[in-house]
Structure formats: C-alpha cells, structure tokens
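Re: your question from the hallway

Yes, I did run it. Sequences:
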Amino acid sequence: MIFSGDINAASLARDGRREFYGMAALCLPSFILVFILLILPIGWLFWMSLFNADGAFSAENYVRLFDSTYTSTLVTTFQVGFLVTVISVVLGYPLAYMLSQLPPRLAGLCTIFVVLPFWTSTLVRTYAWMLLLQRKGIINSALISLGLIADPIRMVNNMTGTVIGMVHIMLPFLVLPLYGVMKSISPDYVRAAANLGAGPTRAFWTIFLPQSLPGLTAGMLLVFVLCLGFYVTPALLGGGRVIMWSMMIDSSIRLYANWGAASALGVALLVMTFCVLWLVNRLFGLKRLYGESR
Amino acid sequence: MQIETKSLAEVPSPPPGGDRGKPMSQRTGDMRSQPLTIKNVAKAYGQLKVLDDVNLDVGSGEFLTLLGASGSGKTTLLMVIAGFARPDSGAVMVGGTDIVRTPAHKRNMGMVFQSYALFPHMNVAANVGYPLRLRGAGRVEIADRVARALDLVQLGHLGERRIDQLSGGQRQRIALARAIVFEPRILLMDEPLSALDKKLREHMQIEIRRLHEKLGMTTIYVTHDQREALTMSDRIAIMDRGRIVQIDEPRRLYERPASRFVADFIGESSFLPIIVEAGIARFGDLVLKTGGRLDTAPRQLLVLRPEKLEILGSEQAPGLNVLSGILTELIYQGESFLCQIALGEGHTVVVRGPTRRDTLAGLPELGGSMRLGLHPEDTVLVPDA
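Structure:
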C-alpha cells in the first residue's frame, strides 16, 4: 500500500542523488587540474625545502632564513613593494578617476593605452627603461643639454631605477580594479552631495573617495603582492644593488644548486603573501574588494 | 557648544508681493519657502530641442508636478532648476533672484533622487546630518535636527542603521528627510516613488502630500504617473517634446483638457469628430448641448471620458446629449466594467460603469443596442489638430 506522503519519494530521492553525482563528475576535471597545477607543486616545494644541500632531512634551510643576509633582503623587498605601491597610488588614482569620468567612448580608448603595456614583454620594457635612464640615456642628455643639470643623475642600477621600472609595470594592476569600482559609483551620489551643499572638493573627499576605497584596496593589494615576488625588473634595473627575495631564490639555484634552500625561500614567500592577504582581509574584507556588494 | 547656522541664515526672506497666483492654505507653513520662476529656458542637444522656450511660475509653497512621457524634457527641466544641467538660454528665478549661473551646491535646494542616492558608506543619521555638517552646524544641533527630520518621516528609531539594511520604502523616507532637514527654499523630487510597489507608492503619495502641507515648501515634483500627479499636486504642468502644453489644477486639467494630446495623456478618452457651424456643434446629425462657450474652429473633437458617460435605459433624458450604438465588447475588471460601443461609421466609444447589480442587469447582450447620456458640462471639445 502506498501512502500519499510517499508517492514517488524513493525515485525522487534517487534522481536527486544522480543529479548530485552528475554535477560532481562534471566538476572533477577542474579539481584535477587545480590539484596537478597548484596543490601538488606547492606540496613538492614544501617537501624539498626540508632537505639540506647534502640531501639530509633537516630544518637547516629555514634556520638560515634568519641570517642577516636574508632578513636585510626581506626588508628591501618590503621597502620596494611599499614604495612601488604608494607611487602607483599617487599616479594611478588620478588616472583611474579621469578614465571613470570620461565619456564612454573616450574612456575605452584611454583604457587601451593603459592596458597596452600588458601586451609587451616585461623584459623588453625593462631594457627600454635602461636605455632611457642610463648615464648617457635620453633623459640625462636632454636635461644636460637644457642646462638643468651639470652632471648626469644616477637613475639606474639602484633603487630609483628599480622603483621607476616596477611602477610602470604595476600601474595597470592598480588602475584597472580601481577604474572598475569608480565606474560603478553612480554620478547621482556626487550630484546629491552638491545638492546638499558640498562643493566639488568636499564632495570628492567625503563622498567619492570613500566609495572608491574597495577598488583602491584591491589594486594596492594586487600591486604589493606582485612586488613581493618580482624578479626581472629589479634584477636588471637594480644593478645588483637592490637584492629582492626572488633574486635570493635565483642565486640559490643558479650559483649554489641548492634546491632545498630555494624551496624554503619559496615557502617563506608564499607564507608572507598569505599573511598580507589575511591582514587585508581582516582589515577590509576581501569579499568586498572583489566586487561583491554587501 | 556654539550653534552655527550661517549658511541657513543667508537665505533671503521672500520679497513682499512676491506671492503669486491663487491663495493656498499651506502657504503660511514655512517662511523660507520661495516662489520659483522659469523664464524662456531653452536647451538643445544638437538638433534636438530638449527644452523649447519653457516658461513657468511656481508660487511660494505650491506643489507643482511636471508630468510627461520619457523624453518630454521634465527631468531636464528639473536638472536645470537643481543646477546639474546648464541651459542654452533663459533664467531661473528664486525669490526674484536669477540663479541660473549659481553652481548647484550654492542653490540651497533639497532634492530627492529617483535612485535616492543615499551615501552607502554612512549610516542613516550621518546621511541626514550631511547637509547640516556642510553648513557648519554644531554636533548638538545636528543631532537635534536629524532626530526631528527622522521623526517627521516616522523613522526616528532608524538613525544607526546602515543604508543597505533599509527597505525601499524606508530609503525613500530617509532620502526625503535628508532633502528637507536643512530647510531648503525649494524641494525637488525626481520620480521618487517609481521604485516602490503600488500599495506603498499610493501610501507615500498621501504621506508626502501631508508633509508638504505641514512644511509648506515650494515643491517641484517630476513623474510620468498621471494618477500620482492628480493625487498630489496643487497644479500640474504637462510637458511634451520640451514644451509645457498645459498647466492647471488637477481637476481642471482632467475635466477641461485643452488639446487632444492632454486629453489622451491624462486619463482614457474616446474622440469623436465634431463639425461647428454658426455656433452649433454637431456630431453627424446630433446637435450637441455644450456647457461652456463654443470655439469657432470648424473642425473639433469631442472628448469622451469612459466614466462620464451614463448608461441610459429607455427613459427620456432631456438635459443630456444622447448617443446610441451597439455593444461590441464587455470587459469585467472587478470594481468596474468597460463596454465598447460602436456608433456607426467606424466610431467607437468606451464606457466605464460600476459593477453594481442594477447597472450590470441593465446591460444588453453583446450586439444589443445601448443609449449613452453625456451631460453638457462634460461635453468637452478640443481643436482637431
């Protein structure tokens, strides 16, 4: 006998299970991909970091990270990251603001100019900066021939060159998320502020800027995290005077063939990156940064 | 704490004799409210005239609605008044002073936006207090006036809420509170109720109307909803293609439309062609009794509102204009029904009647003949454009 409450219950439950397994099967390829490309290499990296140069299992690689060579590199890395982020904000915020206020067609054109460098190799752009910034480069010769300076300024093979090159490469990473958020701020807000009595400056600082902060934080985070692991530009434009964490990884492998030490540096970099993300999440909430409206 | 209301005090008082037009009971409410005059305002985008020589007088304390379809220029006119759009020419006078070149933030007008534009990074109290902070009011005064404004819109308990925690209706009221808290000389509203559902919208219409009567602020209200306009306004200005085509009190506008456009735009209408000869108006062979004076134009249109027509039985109706025809369609709509009646020669009229037992019982079968009575006072003729 079938009770009315049980009509089709068993087959409906079976359909539900089937649907679930079907969905899971469809997701499987991407899970496998993530596992092979992400989880496995990181696990391997961590595993290798636990063996010293002689192939013995030890914590030696991690203990060494507290040597002054490494800690000073760490300080430099964060210094460069901080400087590049700050300068990117100073240059990028007005740029993103202008883009967001332009008429759509013009904004699209200008956005292409912002993104254009993305399509040129970092290496090529870095060499280009070397040409521009060197002692007898275009900038120095121009300044000298104009009589503004007597001797060439040192702009390359030091911190200055490194930061200039990196800011150039990082700028789009700041501008694009910021532009996205600024575009989504309705002009009604600024109008409302004006209507209520706020002049343009006041309306910007009290209404527009606060609402653009999620985009600014997202962009800053992106730039800072990318800076932590940046290699090519500081290596070429720093001229050996600016030693970043990534360069230590490089020398561990190329000069000393010490994969264990390099792995430990990699793990440390990964952990530092996660710490930065965690901190920003605690302070601002990452969900908000990536466009999820509360 | 020193209470500072400098910018509020700067607002000039209305000049004597500036009061224009008909007396209004609510005019006494607020001394700060001021008359507004729009003089020859024009604005074009390329070839398109968005505002075509608009002239408008709004009395102090009056509730005036700009009503029109989208693209009629009503929102642009409001933007010109608020200072967000620059007209090509013309003047905007508030209390006798031309403010057309004054930037928006110095106009001291409150505005309720269609999107409300409540600042999401501030709570309710901070939103409502924002215009007071800009005017340099002290903390105690701000708190006091914010509380009063919130009480006025009956949301006194929500000061600490975040904007995203409010319902649509609550946001609407907060936006209103923010627009009136600094006692602006003119209140502007841009379709403020369009985002609300029907019930709430009708409730808010009455509430805004009451608030207006209490505060007596000169109010310019923009809507495309004719019922809303009729419900709320002292006067309605109907806009079409950048012009004000008629401006009148709601009842006169509905009952005495000046053109086919207005009759069509406000309410439902059927139109019948009328020939006027020697001071006599005729529809076919029927000589019409008209209430008011008759225009001399030879070709005119009779405006028939569905609810103004009376369904007659076989009795004589001496005082009325009587039309007869065939019932072709009957639509039941709950509180009323609609009849479509063919008058012959391709003319049809639509009649609305209440769904009372006796009225319904008096209707013929489909295809049966019907007689309709129209009072001379409701016999409205407009030019046949």
